[in-house]
UniProtKB/TrEMBL annotation:
MOSC domain sequence ranges: 19-169
InterPro entries: MoCF_Sase_C (IPR005302), MOSC_domain (IPR052716), Pyrv_Knase-like_insert_dom_sf (IPR011037)
Name listed for the protein in its UniProt record: MOSC domain-containing protein
Length: 181
């Protein structure tokens, strides 16, 4: 796996589909992004809270590969960092190809463990009509492909800024492919 770079960081203290870009975010071990509405030990996404509010929060940090924005632009959709609610926008890493349990070392200190794929929802079409079909599709075998980024938990806290390097640490095999979380 190749290493990459943080291009943008975003957070929002209130429920909103998009997240404003920031100069920096602080990751808190076991919680997520300081001041972000989705930070916490237990689930914070409304649909998951409705199902079972005691579930562990496997979605503390949302990362999207910035290359996705170029891809959807080719289909006529303008999407910018933070627009899809991600906390960290990356460049140079095939996030979707990472195995479950991969660790992303962001900047000097922070470490995020990858827990799974973001499950894109209908809110994406509310943001840009037709965009959902661009971030969810089928592969040649008819299998569902989710391209709206990955989710993780914070193992080690620290500040993350645009321009910070990302080092990928892949766990010993056999690897488990990412599934929806």
């Amino acid at each position: 796996m190749s290493d990459g770079t943080v291009t943008t960081v975003s957070s929002n203290g209130t429920y909103s589909f998009t997240k404003p870009n920031r100069e920096a975010i602080t990751l808190l071990a076991g919680l997520g992004v300081e001041g972000d509405v989705h930070a916490g030990v237990t689930v914070k996404h409304r649909s998951r809270v409705a199902q079972d509010p005691t579930q562990p929060n496997l979605r503390q940090v949302h990362l999207i590969h910035g290359e996705l924005f170029d891809e959807v632009a080719g289909a006529g959709f303008e999407v910018n960092p933070g627009d899809l609610g991600e906390n960290v926008t990356t460049h140079g890493i095939d996030l979707l190809a990472l195995p479950t349990g991969a660790r992303l070392h962001l900047g000097a200190e922070a470490v995020v463990e990858v827990t799974g794929l973001r499950n894109p929802c209908a809110q994406i079409d509310n943001f840009r009509h037709g965009l959902l079909k661009q971030v969810v599709g089928r592969d040649a075998d008819g299998e569902l492909v989710r391209k709206a980024g990955i989710m993780g938990i914070v193992l080690t806290g620290g500040e993350v800024r645009p321009g910070d390097p990302i080092r990928v640490e892949v766990p010993a095999g056999p690897h488990r492919p990412l599934e929806r979380v």
